[in-house]
Amino acid sequence: MENNLRGKEKECAERIYSIVDDLLRNKTYSNSEINQWSNVICETSMDFLYSKLLPAKYIISCYILKSASTEAALRFSTYWDTGDKHLQICWPKGQKNSNMRCYVNVYILKIAQEG
């Protein structure tokens, strides 16, 4: 999987960014809608990854914050081998939508081969 993923990391990050951008680009932050938006982002991203990168296990998290001007510190710690990967997608690039910010973290874990 490591060789398969290495060339696809950029493609995956760009596609997930596009998923977020397509959903949130013209939206205004809404407390009543962020759970739905987060679910759509996670599920659509999972569908994309699952179709591209078998065999692997995936963990996806999505954080939507109210204002793009608000500072945020998102940290993660991992312990794994070089075959596992982490992608972090931050939206928006620049300030084209200044009323919210979205962070998507994707953990891609290789499945051990038997034998």
UniProtKB/TrEMBL annotation:
Stretch forming the signal peptide: none
GO terms of biological process kind: microtubule-based movement
A GO CC term assigned to this protein in UniProt: cytoplasm
GO molecular function: dynein intermediate chain binding
InterPro entries listed in its UniProt record: Tctex-1-like (IPR005334), Tctex-1-like_sf (IPR038586)
Highest taxon of source: Eukaryota
Name by which UniProt lists this protein: Dynein light chain Tctex-type, putative
Species the sequence originates in: Plasmodium vivax (malaria parasite P. vivax)
